[in-house]
Design brief:
alpha+beta, rod-shaped
């Protein structure tokens, strides 16, 4: 008995599946998803409350003064709140005070500007008084 020798048309070898393109696609997908999540959760600042000293109240530095409650979110998803008092309406250079997150989330109920400083009232009944000497002359 002779063994039949298959001709070249009958010799079809199966190629092993390549995992390279599939693995490469998976890695790219994970990286792109990570970039998207990071971009969406990038630290952001938002002014949630603004107040300006009345024009009738003139401080010794003769400049207008503004107060803002600023919410800052972090990449981890946590939020911090800070009060700002300064010469510009946008919170940049001035006097900053950290506020507990539970107070900041509820917002500010009212502000009272006096020659001695500014009093900030929260809906919970808490108050913060910022003396004028802390924010005069551009501090």
């Amino acid at each position: 008995m002779t063994a039949a020798v298959p001709n070249s048309s009958q010799k079809r070898l199966r190629r092993p599946r390549r995992l390279g393109p599939v693995l490469w696609g998976f890695v790219c997908g994970v990286v792109l998803t990570g970039c998207l999540v990071t971009a969406l959760r990038w630290p952001q600042e938002e002014v949630t409350y603004r107040s300006a000293a009345p024009s009738s109240l003139i401080y010794p530095d003769e400049a207008p003064h503004h107060l803002a409650l600023v919410r800052r979110s972090t990449l981890s998803g946590s939020e911090t709140f800070r009060l700002f008092v300064g010469r510009q309406p946008n919170p940049s250079y001035g006097h900053w005070i950290d506020v507990d997150a539970a107070l900041g989330q509820r917002g500010v109920e009212s502000t009272e500007w006096t020659s001695e400083g500014v009093r900030v009232r929260f809906p919970t009944g808490h108050e913060v008084f910022i003396p004028a000497r802390a924010f005069l002359y551009g501090r």
